[in-house]
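[worker-b] picked up task from shared queue
[worker-b] task type: protein-ligand structure
[worker-b] ligand name resolved to pyridoxal-5'-phosphate; SMILES cross-checked against name lookup, match
[worker-b] sequence length check passed
[worker-b] input payload:
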Amino acid sequence: MKVSNRSHIQPFHAMEVLREANNLELKGKNIWHLETGEPVTGAPEKVRVAAQKYLDSGRIGYTDALGIPDLRKRISLHYLEYYDLNIPEDRIIVTTGSSGGLLLSLLSAFDVGDKVVVTEPGYPAYSNMLKALGLLPIYCSTEADSRYQPTVEQLESLNAKPDGMIIASPANPTGSILKDKEIKTLVDWCNINKVRIIADEVYHRVTYGCRAETILKSTEEAIIINGFSKYYAMTGWRLGWIVIPEKFLKPIERLAQNLFISAPALSQASAIYAFDSSQELDENLKRYERNKDILEASLKRSGFGNSNTAQGAFYLYVDVSPFTHSSQDFCKRMLHEAGVAATPGIDFDRVRGQNYVRFSYAGHTNDIECAAESIEKWIKVRFK
Ligand SMILES: Cc1ncc(COP(=O)(O)O)c(C=O)c1O
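[worker-b] inference finished, payload out:
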């Protein structure tokens, strides 16, 4: 049977590294995992207790395709508590991870052949998902001096007129946060040029010494992607949400019914309690910040080039050009020889990414220390 052309997309290299790292572990090798963006702590205690109770109640069935009403209400209350915004629960849809939310958003906002701006460096699933759906990514190469966020000048000079744009703040892999003024400028440009915006806010609340503002403060016309994987440390629960303009409700409901039936019931019922766990979750932020300092200092000592001065998310996106111009080869050798798994920059930037590697510091501090020490030793032996 023929395999579809649409499935010929790039692999997600971070996941490929994870598979190779797991294989090495099965063979008894000690590996430090700095490749995937995953908090190691697990879901907050209140969520786990609620999940146990729900499990014991017996039946875990389908839910309403838009999500259980109590969770939609709780997310609406979160917008009031955290952002001081009134977002009616009808505009909130619970999804299977924020990845599921991204898929529903793209399907509901664009038609085959539409052109959508994505930034480089940027989260690879954006362009890969666009391609699989028959949409055309338009790459906008962002620079360190605009903190890897797109500028109006860059958008004006694109070689095609876009129908849409995906922005992310804090962004992956750079951790870059859009300032309020920058959000407004991008929103104005998109309004004038009739460009539909999808704003990925999944790293909201994973910020250091600052806050990321929601695009909802500047427009009601964008689709907002968010979820429980990052700040709430619930990756495997596969739960996210989107905030949509009212007119998208019925189209997205039809798509969600047919594509997913519903998001996982157990995760939905338990996630309500994630919003009452801020004290516990904020402790994770303190650890991420410590980890970042340890890793950054160690990589500098080893002779790595500059890294992003990340204000958010939990990644260092580091210049490896002092050692290599093939980030994939570098990551492979680092995995096999130093036992440290990291993601090659080509996941995030097709060309310039050869000179970058992304390290996730969402792990335990002890593991980050061991990984940093192992990299330092390896660099000394290999490159000096
Ligand atoms: C920027 C960004 N958006 C979305 C996702 C998807 O997250 P999930 O589907 O686990 O909610 C990720 C995961 O790493 C990400 O980095």
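[worker-b] attaching auto-annotations
[worker-b] The CA atoms of residues 105 and 223 lie 7 Å apart.
[worker-b] releasing lock
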